[in-house]
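Incident log, structure service

09:12 report received: a user says their structure output differs between two submissions of the same chain.
09:20 pulled the input from the user's history:
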Amino acid sequence: MSTEQLTPAEYIGHHLSFNAQSVGDTGFWVLHMDTLVVSLLLGIVVFGFLGWVVRGVTAGVPNKRQAFVELLMEFVDGQVKTIFHGNRHAFVAPLALTVFVWVLFMNAMDFLPIDVMAKLVYEGVFGLHKWRAVPTSDINATFALALSVWVLMIFFSIKVKGLGGWIHELFCAPFGSNPLVWPANFAFNLIEYISKPLSHALRLFGNMYAGEIIFLLLGMWAATGLVGTFFGALLGAGWAIFHILIVILQAFIFMMLTVVYISMAHESH
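09:34 re-ran on a clean worker, output below:
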């Protein structure tokens, strides 16, 4: 859909619309097919590539692919080592690598030129008039990731401390085990448990959504003529270069928070 046919509000609204499919007759449950499909395809491609490289590992001089993957794994393992002091190789380091790589590539979908992809691929090839290619700019995707980490955090907390120990911590930390402060302890821990997935999800979503909006605003300049196209392309290139830092940093932060939360689950107050 060309920008000449739309007002600025319609243009932004069109590109921020999901390919939503209702589940059932009530329409209460809705699946964002673009988020699900892109996330799944990226997972298959990225981790298929990593698995292919790992299966071809040799003891001699590594090729470029193997060297890149080894550097990536060493970087993630080094970050996990500074936070988690247990057996990180059993689960936490692989989890951190999965989270970092997956979120990084979902974020990187923001670099695809919106109007070009919409005209040539989404509409031209598949006939899709609504398609958002950045899964992490969907609050449902970031909350799904954050809630998965939250469930793992509770699971490991119960596994390490036992169900009784976990419940005891809920009511007896951080202000002590006196029954008079049980309500305060529980309220404090409840707020902590609620705030973790909220901050985890909203931080990633907010940054990626804002980046997508800026790309759309710059893209609207192309409809104002040759001068607008030139400055839109110039500023868009500048923002894309700066956005590289945001894409990598947000994936790194999401990974580090994941490791921090899992590490906290292994510790006692």
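09:41 both user submissions now match this output. Likely a transient worker issue. Closing.
09:42 reviewer note: The first strand starts at residue 20 and ends at 23. Strands lie at 20-23, 29-32.
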